[in-house]
Amino acid sequence: MDYKKSLWNGTNQSDIYGSYVNQDKFATVFLSNKTKCVRTYFDRIQYGTGINYDSGFLEIDNKRINNFSLSVGVLLPVENKAFSALNGTYSYGQKGSISNGLVKENYHKLSLNISLDGIWFVKRKFE
C-alpha cells in the first residue's frame, strides 16, 4: 500500500478555472508468483493487479477532479542470476465527473518498463 499527500493549498495559486487544493493519493498492489519452487523461467514470472485513487489537486465550483484506475501487469525476468526484469502493465481509469458541467475522461494506458539490476554494470574481476 502507498499513500501520498501533496500540499497544493500552501502554494497560494489559482487559475481561471478553479483553485488548487491539497491532494491525497492511495495505491494498493497485489503480486503473485505461480509457485514457490523456482525451477523454470515460467516459475519466476510474477503477476500483479493494482487499484489507484487520486483525490485531485484542482477544485472547480467546489467539485474536485478525482482519478480512479485499475491495473493488471506481468513481470518477466530477463536473466537467471540477476534481478533485472521487463514489466508490462495495462490500466483503465476514469478522471473527473460529468456533474455540474464538468468533464469525465475514461482512459486506457499501456506501460512497458525495464529494470536493470546494478550487477550488469560491474566489471568482472575474474573470467
Automatic annotation (TrEMBL):
The lineage of its organism: Bacteria, Pseudomonadati, Bacteroidota, Flavobacteriia, Flavobacteriales. This is Outer membrane protein. It comes from the Bacteria.
